[in-house]
Design goal:
Blueprint (H helix, E strand, L loop, with lengths): L1 H4 L6 E5 L5 H7 L7 E7 L12 E4 L12 E7 L6 H8 L19 E7 L3 H8 L5 E5 L9 E8 L2
Parallel strand pairs: 1-2, 1-4, 2-3, 4-5
Antiparallel strand pairs: 5-7, 6-7
């Protein structure tokens, strides 16, 4: 399911909060949908399953990965800071309003993906103020546990 949502190679997919990298490694090994995926997480979480060239360690949970500006999709897996997506959107000037802020890089993101507890979806969405510039799709047939959700917001600009 997730593979059909993600952009294919050579587009970059950034997985924010990859943990051990099991999901990302599974996505990398899917021969039917080749991906360029990079996982980023904080220093105490070295991935067990993701090859070294496919992850980067960040110093703090509030640090932003500069590669996000080049990524066409951002995956947030069980985010601890639900407003982190707002920080990414602001830093890379990816707001739906199309106003390019001074000192910001124009980002390429076209899809924001949330994987986590269903109870966090609304707070996650509120944390970045998803508006008319994004179309929300809740993926019901997702292979996750009943209490987990998979939601995709696609840019409509």
């Amino acid at each position: 399911t997730l593979n059909s949502i993600l952009p294919t190679f050579p587009a970059l997919v950034l997985s924010i909060g990859h943990g051990h990298g099991l999901l990302e490694a599974h996505l990398l090994n899917d021969e039917g949908n080749p991906l360029e995926i990079l996982g980023v997480d904080i220093a105490h979480k070295t991935p067990q399953y993701l090859p070294e060239q496919n992850y980067r360690i960040l110093p703090l949970s509030t640090s932003l990965a500069e590669e996000a500006g080049e990524a066409e999709a951002w995956i947030f897996i069980y985010p601890r800071i639900l407003s982190l997506v707002r920080q990414y959107l602001d830093h890379f000037d990816c707001g739906a309003h199309g106003e390019h802020g001074a000192g910001r890089r124009k980002g390429k993101v076209r899809a924001i993906i949330f994987i986590g507890p269903r109870t966090d979806i609304e707070e996650f969405e509120d944390g970045w103020g998803a508006d008319g510039g994004w179309k929300k799709e809740v993926i019901e047939e997702n292979g996750l546990k009943e209490y987990e959700g998979l939601v995709v917001w696609r840019s409509v600009k």
